[in-house]
Amino acid sequence: MTLWVFGYGSLLWNPGFEVIEQVPARLSGYRRSFCMRSIHHRGTPEEPGLVLALDASDEAHCDGLALAAAPDQSEAVLAYLRERELVSAAYLERLLPLALEDGRDVTALVYVIDPDHVQYCALDLEEQAQIIAQAVGGRGPNSEYLYNTSAHLETLGLPDAELQWLDKRVRELTA
C-alpha cells in the first residue's frame, strides 16, 4: 500500500524522502496558518519563531501536495517524518482523506496542530510578520521558511493569500 503524505509547508520544498508521485490535493476542515511557535527549527525557546500548521476549521480547506513514498520505503519514511515533525509534540499525527486534483481520493498522513499545546498561538497577520522577520532557529531564518513556502505554492499554482501578504510584509520589515 502506498504511503501518502500531505505537504502544505516545508514538505512542499523539502520533503526529505524520495517522492515517487506528487499531485495537487485539498484537505477539507483545516486551514494553513502560522499558528505554531517554533522553538527548534525557526526560533529558540527564548525567541520563538513561527511555523505553519493545520488548524481545524469546519468551513476551511488547505491546498497542497499529496506526496507518495515508495512502497518499500514506507516504514523508513514514517520513522523519518515522526522524528522531524513530532520533535516537540505540538503536532498530532492523523490519517485524513485528501481529494487529489486528478479526481482520486486517498488517505494521507497529515500533521495538524494540537490546539491545547503550549506552542499553539492565534496571532493576527501583523504580529506574525513581526515575529517571522526577526526569528532565527536551528534550520535558519524564519523568513526563509516563509519565502520558500510562499514561492513554492505560487509555482504550483496554489497561491495562499495570507502567505503572499506575509511574504510582502516581512520583506518590507527586513529591507
From TrEMBL:
Enzyme's top EC category: lyase
Superkingdom, taxonomy of origin: Bacteria
The entry's keywords: Lyase
GO cellular component: cytoplasm
GO molecular function terms attached to this record: glutathione specific gamma-glutamylcyclotransferase activity
Keyword hit for Lyase: yes
E.C. number(s) listed in UniProt: 4.3.2.7
GO BP: any one term: glutathione catabolic process
Keyword Lyase among record annotations: yes
CDD domains, per the entry: GGCT_like (cd06661)
Protein known as: glutathione-specific gamma-glutamylcyclotransferase
Species annotation: Roseivivax halotolerans
